[in-house]
Each structure stands twice: as structure tokens, then as C-alpha cells.
Design brief:
The structure is a homodimer. Chain A is mostly helical and about 190 residues long. Chain A folds into 2 domains: about 100 residues, Orthogonal Bundle (Arc Repressor Mutant, subunit A); about 80 residues. The first copy, chain A, is elongated. In chain A, about 35% of the residues are buried. Chain A starts with a helix and ends in a 10-residue tail after the last helix. Helix content of chain A is about 70%, strand content about 5%. At the A-B interface, helix 1, helix 5 and helix 6 of A face helix 1, helix 5 and helix 6 of B. Chain A binds a DNA duplex (30 and 30 nucleotides) through helix 4.
Chain lengths: ~190, ~190
DNA sequence: AAATATGTTAAAAATAAATTTAATAAAATA
DNA sequence: TATTTTATTAAATTTATTTTTAACATATTT
């Protein structure tokens, strides 16, 4: 029985460890460093809020590292500070809903990308049209301006599409097109 | 007239420069360094294929840098090597369809993320179920195993959803839900 | 108010990534 | 086949990022 208890704990450890590793490995996609990814993955399996000291012991890193890492995770809204009576230390809990995270992250990124590029495209189109309207401009330059304008029109389409996508994720509309399915185990 | 020709060229330069800067700035989203992003942005406005020497002159960097940068861009399929009679130097042309790029990039990333995590989730679920079936396991451990299983079921849903999304982008189905619109200028 | 506990900022150190120069390899011309 | 041109790899350098140690600030307890 002693034996078995030990075994169960080991199994639990193995199970969690496997998922922690894969989360940490894939989290670079969301713009966090491996260490910060690993911190999040570790918190993902904590069902009670953790202190900075807990984290530093768990990961074998310094406390300032934990402090900055956890702030980064708060910035991207996947870790929250919680309050508990009687504790002086700050306590943190991981947001476990990946959809929330996904939406936030890509929504922001795509919106930023679209906005920035659309601004540049608008500016460029203005200049290029000036060239086309200038009777004294060299033919070669005019041709190139025209070619650029054609290209930029396509780019504009793409930016607008990105905005649409971001918006449909933000509003949740996308889940009408691609519903979230409660899936059954074993693939 | 001399004056005006000069002016048109300047306008063209300004127009292209603005878009090059914004592309370079947003391209980190697609996992390339600023330099490589800038190289792509520069190639985006070249209507004739460019040699490594062209690029190195344009960006003021070394040839080996251009060589590795252009290979990276080939890897992610947004630059193609082209062949032209009579030239000994390699020639490269930018893929200008951003949808193509978007699909490729996120499709791959999301598929990889989903696959890797699903593998870990499957492994973990197996172990956790073993714990639940073990009569000698401590109650505390069993409870935690159950909690983990619940969490992982949600995570599995997310991974499957990601796979769906990747697939619908890959197949183009997503464009039925979010059509690409030919947009008109000035926002 | 002094002592202690906690978290954060700043400087320093360590690590990793990007870039260049130099060396090598491969291909093309003479 | 020797020479030249072009591209790539390897080593060295530079630059940027991450992490730590040490100093500081803030709050809490005694």
C-alpha cells in the first residue's frame, strides 16, 4: 500500500509533467519566452493560487525573475492576482481557458498589423496618385506607380480581411462558423 | 521639367518607403527578425527578380546575411528562386499574396501546436485514469487526478478547435465565412 | 519606531542571437 | 585545366536578451 500511494503520485507527476512540457514548448507562438511559458504551464496545474516563492522553488529561478515573468503573464491576461485573507504574500492563479487567451492574443496582433499597414497604404496611395496625375512625370515612373497601386489594392484587401477575422474572434462570431466541440478522449 | 521628374521619383520613393517600414515592423508576427522582415518588404516592391548583391546593396548588409535571410524567406515560402537565361547569379522574387503567406504560417503553427499538445494530453489522460482505477491510491491524489482530467478535457476541445481552424484556412473554407472583399481606397 | 517580510528596480553577469569577416566549395568561363 | 565568379559554411565579433545578485522601497508586524 505504501508502494501504491507512491506510485499514484508518480503517475500524477508524469501526467502533469508531459502536458507542462508541451505547453511550454508551444507557447513561443504566443510571444512569451520559454521560461515564462514554462511558468504558465506550471501554474496551469496548480489548483490553489501560488506565491512568488512557490514559483521560484518550483522552477529553481530567482524571485525577481518570477516577479517579472508573472507580470508579463498578467499583461497578456492569462494570470490573475488573487486575494486571500491572512496571507501577506501576493497570490497568483492561471487563467485556464485557452480560447480566452487565443482571442486576446491574435485579436490584438492582427488588429495592430492591419491598422499600421492600412495607414501606410493610404499614405502611399496618395503619393502614387499624385505621380499619375503629374503630366510631367517620367513614363517609367508612372508605370511603376501604377504597378505599385495595383499591388497595394490587394494588400488593402488582406488588411481588411485580417480586421474582419480579428473582429469575428473578438465578438465570438467565429464560433458559429467553427463551433467548439466537447470532444471525447483518445483522439 | 527636370525638377518634376526628380519630384516624381521622390514621391515614389516615399510611398514605397512608408509601406516597407510598416511591413518590416509588423512582420515579427510571422516569426522573422526585423532584418529579414525588411528584406521581404524591400523585395515586395521589386517587380524584377533580385540578386544577393542587389539586396546587400539595398540594405547595406553582408552577402552571407542576405544568403541566410533569403533562405529563411524561401523556407516560409514567401520568396522564390527564379531562373533567367544568361544570368549566373541566383535571382529571387517575392511572393506578394499575403493570404498565401498567412495561411501557410498560421496553418503550420496551429497544426503543430494542436498535435503536440494532443499527444501530451492523451498520454496524461491515460496516466490519470490509471490513478482513478487504482483502489489503493490516496483520496487526495485521486481528487487531483479528477480535477486535472476535467481541465484536460477542455484543453482537448481547444486543440481540436485549433485543428479545425487550421484546416479551414488550409482548404480555403474560411473564405466562405469571411469573404475577401475588393476594397476601395481611403479606408 | 524598530525589525521583519515582501516585492520591485537597477546594475552586473551570463546566455543566446544576429551579423560580419574569412575561408571553403561549387559552378562557369576562358 | 586554370581562373574567375558566385554562394555557402565556419569562426569570430557584435549586439540583444535573459537571468541573477544586490540595492531599494514599501508595507506589516512586534
Amino acid at each position: 500500500m505504501e508502494e501504491n500511494q507512491k506510485n499514484s503520485e508518480e503517475l500524477l507527476e508524469q501526467a502533469e509533467r508531459a502536458v507542462i512540457n508541451s505547453i511550454a514548448e508551444t507557447m513561443d507562438l504566443y510571444g512569451v519566452t520559454p521560461s515564462i511559458g514554462r511558468l504558465y504551464a506550471t501554474l496551469y496545474f496548480k489548483h490553489d493560487p501560488q506565491t512568488l516563492d512557490d514559483m521560484k522553488d518550483e522552477l529553481g529561478m530567482s524571485k525577481p525573475s518570477m516577479s517579472t515573468a508573472v507580470r508579463k503573464l498578467q499583461d497578456i491576461d492569462i494570470v490573475k492576482k488573487v486575494w486571500k485573507k491572512g496571507t501577506r504574500k501576493d497570490l497568483f492563479l492561471a487563467e485556464k481557458n485557452f480560447f480566452h487567451y487565443f482571442s486576446q492574443f491574435f485579436g490584438d496582433k492582427w488588429e495592430r498589423e492591419a491598422k499600421l499597414n492600412l495607414t501606410a497604404i493610404n499614405y502611399a496611395e496618395e503619393k502614387l496618385k499624385e505621380i499619375l496625375e503629374d503630366e510631367d512625370a517620367e513614363e517609367k515612373v508612372k508605370q511603376r506607380a501604377e504597378q505599385d497601386l495595383k499591388q497595394l489594392a490587394e494588400y488593402r484587401s488582406y488588411c481588411h480581411w485580417l480586421e474582419q477575422l480579428a473582429q469575428s474572434i473578438d465578438s465570438g462570431e467565429i464560433f458559429e462558423f467553427l463551433p467548439i466541440e466537447k470532444t471525447n478522449p483518445e483522439e
